Each structure stands twice: as C-alpha cells, then as structure tokens.
Request: fold
Amino acid sequence: MPSSGYPANFIRFLGTAGTRFIMLSQRRSSGGIWFSYGGSRGVIDPGPGSLVRICEARPPLSPIDVNTIVLTHRHIDHSSDVNALAEGMTLKSRNPRGFILSTRDALEDGDRVLMKYLSSRIAKKEIHEDGKFTSPAGGVTIESVEHSHHGVECYGFIFRADGLPSWGVISDTAPLPGFPARYGDCELLIVNTALTFPRAKLDHMSLADVGSLLGRVSPAATVITHMGADLLDRGGEYISNRLAARGTKVIAATDGMILTLENPITILKPEEFDNDGAHD
Ligand SMILES: [Zn+2]
Ligand SMILES: [Zn+2]
Reply:
C-alpha cells in the first residue's frame, strides 16, 4: 500500500547527520532515509531517532508499512533502530516477512546489531557482496558496491526498477577509483559527505572528492547528506556553489526533505502539502 499523501515513488530524509558528534548532539537527525520505490518501502541506515522521525512525519509514514531494510554498515549512527524497524516490518504477520540487506558483521557475527529473535522473523536475509544483485519486493534490484571504511564491512548500492530512475547511495567510505564506473548510470546520486576537504586517516568522502567524482559521472541530481560540523557550518548554499557547473543539480539535504523518485527528480517543499498533509 503506498504511503498516502506522497507520490508513488519518493525518498524522505529522516536524518542528515554525519559523524558521531552530530548524531550525539542531534544538531541534525540521524534517522536514515525512507524510500518508496517500485513495490519496496523501507529505510536505509535507521540510526538513532529513525522510528521517532517516521512516526512524526507529515504526511504520515508507518513502520508497519516497511518491507525492506538496508544497512550500509553497523556503526551506531546507521544501525541503532534496526531492531525497532524489524519489529514494525514483521508485526502483522504470523509467518516470516520482509527483506533485509546488510553486512555480515551486522547480521550474523558476535557483535551483530540485529537481535536473533527478530532476525528469525524476517523472511529474506541477504548479505552484501561486491557486485551482488539482490531483489526486495516489487521488481526492484539492488546492486551492492564495496566500500572502505575504518575496518568495518561497509557497502553502498544502486537501486534499479523498470521505468523508474536508478539511484545510488555512496555511504561512509574513502573515495575509491571504481566509483565512476559503478555509479555511472545513476540518475540520482546520494553521497555521505562528512568532510569539506579530504583528511588523512579518515575514511569519509569530502566535498572535494564529490567534485572529482562529478567530473566523471553526470547524474541528473546529486544529494549531499551525512554532513559533519564544518559542512553544516558552511551551509547548503556553499555546498551547491562549490559543486556548481558540474552538469548535475546539487542539493544539500535537510531533515525531512522529500525527493520524487520519478522523472524529473524533484524536491517537494512543505508548502506543497495542504493542511491535511495531502499532496496534490
Ligand atoms: Zn556514518
Ligand atoms: Zn561509519
């Protein structure tokens, strides 16, 4: 069932916090990304506050509508609410239900983040491998892309579905030479950009790294999210200006921001919703 009041295919940023410092202050929320795409509805990286942000969203969203959960890695700002969402995803079914795509260390190993009793209620559990295609509900495929991030398993991915724009997520990672080829067909690219400039020993993308990447790929729209303190201080205008003239619409994400996953990819502003929360 589509989420009423929204387009059929969309993303809502439940949070845009990057780094543990921003998460701990909640200067930006850390709820991850809600998506409705083809027949898949769910959350990428449900960090602290994800469930609260879902329940507070207007137009409303419901954790019971979730049928897909995707984790890029197990760091706490990306994974803490995964159990709450697994509860929502499986609540209404006596039989195992839903789909989770995750790293092995988050799903199976000793320091796993998904509790066993909830894991047993999920129908389809997939482990990221570089280049692997998995299929959640509704004719959607997800291609996993291996990342390099401070010694934890970490993957980005590309969502594809017939007739809909393809969209990629680059999660927490050092910039890797394979990214232009892997993300080259994305019409929307979402990049976790914690830093303004590269910093030695920090496995995170910087705005400068995104600029280099956009010299080699041309998505219709690029969204900068998971921002650290310096980027947040500099602001969205700085981000857009720094990446201007790259042949892509650059958007600095804000908490609650909604993007259509239909062509053309469009930002929906709160004033486009009436008082009942219905989108017309
Ligand atoms: Zn992170
Ligand atoms: Zn991380």
